[in-house]
Fold each of these.
Amino acid sequence: MKRLQLLLLLGMLLLTQEVSQSAEPSARPNVLFIVIDDLRPELGCYGNDRVLTPHIDRLARSGMVFTQAYCQYAICWASRASVLTGYRPDRISKKAAHDLRRYMPKVLSLPQHFRNHGYDTISIGKVYHGNQDKPGWTEISPVRRPYYADPKTLAYQEERRKEAERLGITKPLDLYHYTIGPPVECIDVPDNAYADGAWADEAIRQLRRPRNRPFFLAVGFIKPHLPFCAPKKYWDLYDRSKIPLPDSRLPKGITKYTFKTRRLPDNVVNYLGVPRLKRLGDTLDDAWTRKLIHGYYACTSYVDAQVGRVLEALEESGKADRTIVILWGDHGFKLGEYSVWSKSSNMEYDTHAPLILRVPGRTAGERCNALVEFVDIYPTLAQLCGLDIPSHCEGTSMVPLLEDPDRPWKKAAFSQFHRPGGIMGYSLRTDRWRYVEWQERKTKNVIARELYDQSRGPFVEANLAELPEYADTVAQLSALLRAGWRQARPPAIEKP
Ligand SMILES: [Ca+2]
C-alpha cells in the first residue's frame, strides 16, 4: 500500500514537473546575443562623432551603455572562452579555449545553460573562437564566407596555396602567412558578399521563424577584425584626408613585456604590401596609417549596418518587447597608438571594449560608469531570464546596476595577458589607475610593474610604477591585485 502511495506521489511529481517545464520556458524572455570582433569603444553612443554607427547608437538609446567595461584577456579566443564559460582566464587553458569539450567536457557553458532550460540556442558566425561547443547549441549555422570578395585576391590566394603545397608548407601558421592577402578591400559588392552580411541574413531568417520556445540567438560578426574588407559604400562614408593620425609615441618607461613584439598572425604588418616594421616604435607612414584607419572605420560602419538589419527584423517579428539584447566587442584594438597595431596587451586600448545591454521595460538609454567585466555577462543573462546563476561563475550579475547605475560597485576590473617564456601580466583597472604586474607563472615572482594614470583617457604618456612618488599607489594596487577579484566585488555581494 505504502509503495503504491509512493508511486502515485512520484507520478504526480513527475507530471507537475513536466507541466511546469513545458509551461515555464515560454514565459522566459528571448536573448539576442551580438558579439563584434575587435570593436573599439569608439561609437556614437560612446561619445565618438567620427565613426558612424547609427544603428548601435539606436540600440544604446533604449539600452544601458556600460562605459567602463573590460575584457578579461585581450584576444579573441581567451576573451570569448571566458564570457561563454563564466570562468576567468586562469581556469581555461589555450587548448580548451580552442576545443572546449575536449579539454573541459563538463563545463556548463552559457548557451548550454539556456538550452537546458528549454531555449532554442542558435549560433551564427564567430561566437566562440575555433570551436563550436556542440552541447551548447540546438543549431549551428554552417554559413561561411572567404575574407575577400575580390576575385583577383581569391585567385592570388589560390595560386599561393598551390605553390605552398608544392613547397611542402603545411603548418597552419606558415600557410596563413604564405597565403595572406591585402589588409584592406574596397569594392562595390552587396553586404552579403562578406560573412557579416550573410550572417545577418541568417539571423533575420531565424528571427522570422515561428517558434514555441524562447530563443538564445548568438550572432558573432567578424568585422572590424582584419583584413578591413567592407563594401565600397561604407568606405564612401569617410573622407580619408580628414582622419586624424594616432599619437604614435611610446609611453616612457614601458617594460619589455608591455607590447608583443613577436610576429603576430593577426598583426597588420603581416598583410600583403604593408611595409614591415622592424622595431617597436617604428611607424607606418601617414598614407598607410590613414588607409588602415579608414578601413577600420568602414568595417565598423558595415558591421553597424548589419546590427541594424538584425534589430529591425527583431522589431518586425513582434518579439522585441520580450527580447533582451546584449552587444559586446570581444576586446579593443590599437590603430597605431604607441606605434602599435592590433591587440594582445593589457593596455586600455586593448582591454576596454563596448558593452550595451537592452532589457525591455528596464533600460531606456542610461549610461553606467561602474567598472564591469565581461565575465559578468553570463550571470547577468542568467538572472535576467530567471535561470539560476551556476556556482562556477566567477563574474557578478550586473542586474542591480539596471536599477541604480550609480550604486557602489566593483573596486577593480581584472585583465591579463601572457608573454612567451611562461610569463603572465596580471592587470587591474580602478576608476583612475591601470596597474600591471608581470609574473613568472611558476614562481609568481614579479619581474616588472606598470602603473598608468587613465584619468585623461586611454592614451598614457608614461609608466609611473618605478617613480618614488607613486610607491604608495603601487603598494595599494598591488595588494588589491593580490587579494583578487573576489575581494573587489560590490560590497553587498561580497561573500565571506
Ligand atoms: Ca577579437
Amino acid sequence: MSNRLRGWHLMFASVITRLCVLIIIILLASWSIYLNYKVGYNNARLVELADGKLVATFYRMSDWFFSCFGDPVAAMQSNGGMTWSIRLFGVQITDPIAATSVFLNNGQLAFGFFIGALIPLSLALLFGRVFCSYICPASLLFFTIGRLRRLLGRFFYFPELPMNRFFAWGVLCGGVVLALVTTHGIWALILPYFAVGQTIFHAITFGVMHVAVFSILFFIVVDFALGYQFTCRHICPTGRLLGVIGAKPLVSIRRDASACIDDCHSCEQVCTFMVSPKKDETRDCSLCGECMSVCPASCLSVGTKKAIDVSSSGIVVNTDVASEV
Ligand code: SF4
Ligand code: SF4
Ligand code: SF4
C-alpha cells in the first residue's frame, strides 16, 4: 500500500473517531436522562406514558445495554461527566487545563482527577497533538469550515491575518486568571471543544442553549474572517499546549529525504497546524495524514524515530529514518 493511500486512511480514521466522540458526548447526555427515568420510574411502560414511544425505546435500549454490565444504575453511574472530565466505564479522562484551573482555584486535586489528566498528556507524549485530529469534538467543525474556505476561496477573497505563536499562550494565561477570579466554568467560553461539549450537553439534558453557543459562533466567524483554521492555529490554548508537550513524540510523520522533491512544498501547504514535514518538523503534528495524502513522491510515512543512520561512506544521510507502524 502506498504512503499516499495510508494518508487517506488516516484522514478517514480521524473523521470517524471524531464522529464517535461526538456520539459519545450525545450518549452521555442522553444517558443522564435515562438515569433519571430509571431512578424515577424504573418501568418502560411508565416512561412511554410520560414521554412517548421514542423515549421509551431509548430507555429500553439503554436498560438492555447497561444490564450487560450488571446493575444498570451502577453501570450508568460509572459513565458521565462533561467535556472537561468524562468517566467512561469507570475510567476518568480529564482536560489538563481544567484540572490545573480547579487546582489553582481550590488548592486541591482529587487523585482520580489527576490520573485522568495524565491520559491526554501521555497521549501527547507518545503521538503528539493527536487529540486535535482524532478526539477534539470541535475540530470537525473547524475542519469543515477550513474546507469550505478553501472551496469558496476559488471565487472569493478570504483574509489571512498573520499571528504570533505566543497569542495562544496569552489566551491560556488570561483564561487562568479569569478562572481564578470567576470559576473554572469560564473555560466553556474559552476552549472551543469545551464550548461544543457544553452546548450539546445542555441542549439534550436541559433542552436549553448554553451561553457557550455564542462562543462557538464567535470561533466560526473568526475562522471565516481571520484565517484558515485560525482558532486551532492561533487561539486554542489546548492545541498550543499539546503541541509543545508532544513536540518530540515517539511516533510521528517521517520523511525519506532521499526521495523528497526539492522544489515541492505540498506537505507544508496543506498542513492544518503549519507543520513542515519537508523540514522534518514534528512539533504540532496531529498525525492527520493529510500531508501523506498529497506527497507526490510518497516519501512521508508514520513511524518511530530510529538511531542516526550513517551511510557506508560515513556521511549522515538522514537523521529521522522512517520506521513504519
Ligand atoms: S486546537 Fe483546540 S479546538 Fe482545535 S482541534 Fe486542537 S483542541 Fe480542538
Ligand atoms: S504534518 Fe501536518 S498534515 Fe502532516 S500529519 Fe502532521 S498535522 Fe497532518
Ligand atoms: S510533499 Fe513530499 S516531496 Fe513534497 S516537499 Fe513534502 S515530503 Fe517532499
